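Tokens for chain A. Residues wanted.
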């Protein structure tokens, strides 16, 4: 099972000012989640989704009816969001106790020191969305201790974000999930090759935007199709190769765009040449087509159908040998959405 780790802060849409755009992914959970659903089998947000739902509802005052909660419950029901019980644990407490060992335990201690101020009673919701900004009132921020100013508060938020994602990745590995990756983060304090290779950022940015144009039902339906599954497997194989190599983000972006251009250009030529036979049948038989249908002259009609089938077979063959075919999922998304 391949799991993409997403920051729960995206559920609150809490990210820094526009001037920090290069340091985070400025996507809402809905948009990012739809893209990640085509790269991973499951997505991980937090260990306790019920508490996450309570936090989200409290910040808006809509509680269970908050649209973000409605979407979250839907994705859990559809099996996209991974929960402790999906990993064989009987409870959240058992998952935490079993997973907070080794590297995960060390990172957790750092996370506790940074803290996550609660909305009401001052307790800490470690592992949940950062609620510090929502708990602030009358010009006072819960993290404004010992004279901390705005810069120190922002630094603490970034540390919480970075440590949370690293801890979640370590916990999932401790629980037996080796194929995990941090899909996106708001604050990138520390990068590690195995968790935040630039391939994820580049691919997610090059994917078509799906936030307003594609309902979740359509995205999950597209994901379940046999052809889509083949394209996803091809892309994953390419990703595994890329992650093992040294790439800068800029170089990787150029590589992705060039491969997609080569793929689309190859198929464009194939479509033009592949349609020649169909056009010949249409042109030579157009004058007789209506008469053929009326008189049930199936020979002429069958010839046209055969030419169309042959064209489709040829296009599939061309697709299989096209340069850049490993990234065919992205052009396919443009056609479907």
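Reply:
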């Amino acid at each position: 099972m391949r799991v993409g780790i997403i920051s729960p802060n995206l559920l609150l849409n809490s990210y820094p000012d526009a001037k920090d755009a290069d340091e985070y992914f400025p996507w809402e959970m809905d948009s990012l989640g739809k893209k990640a659903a085509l790269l991973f089998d499951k997505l991980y947000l937090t260990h306790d989704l019920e508490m996450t739902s309570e936090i989200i509802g409290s910040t808006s005052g809509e509680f269970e009816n908050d649209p973000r909660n409605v979407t979250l419950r839907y994705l859990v029901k559809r099996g996209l969001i991974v929960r402790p019980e999906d990993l064989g644990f009987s409870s959240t407490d058992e998952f935490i106790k079993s997973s907070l060992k080794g590297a995960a335990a060390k990172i957790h201690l750092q996370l506790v020191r940074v803290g996550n101020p609660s909305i009401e009673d001052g307790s800490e919701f470690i592992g949940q969305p950062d609620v510090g900004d929502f708990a602030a009132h009358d010009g006072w921020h819960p993290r404004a201790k010992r004279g901390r100013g705005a810069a120190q508060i922002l630094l603490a938020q970034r540390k919480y974000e970075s440590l949370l994602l690293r801890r979640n990745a370590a916990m999932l590995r401790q629980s037996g999930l080796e194929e995990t990756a941090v899909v996106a983060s708001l604050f990138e304090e520390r990068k590690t090759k195995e968790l935040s290779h630039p391939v994820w950022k580049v691919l997610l940015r090059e994917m078509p935007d799906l936030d307003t144009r594609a309902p979740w039902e359509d995205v999950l339906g597209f994901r379940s199709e046999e052809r889509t599954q083949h394209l996803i497997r091809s892309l994953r194989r390419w990703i595994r190769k890329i992650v093992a190599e040294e790439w800068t983000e800029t170089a990787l972006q150029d590589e992705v765009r060039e491969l997609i251009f080569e793929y689309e250009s190859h198929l464009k030529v194939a479509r033009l040449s592949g349609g020649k036979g169909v056009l010949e049948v249409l042109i030579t038989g157009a004058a007789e087509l209506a008469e053929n249908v009326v008189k049930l002259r199936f020979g002429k009609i069958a010839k046209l159908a055969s030419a169309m089938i042959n064209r489709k077979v040829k296009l599939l063959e061309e697709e299989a040998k096209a340069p850049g075919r490993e990234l065919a999922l992205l052009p396919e998304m443009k056609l479907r959405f």
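Strands lie at 3-6, 42-44, 180-184. The chain has two domains: 3-196, 256-336.
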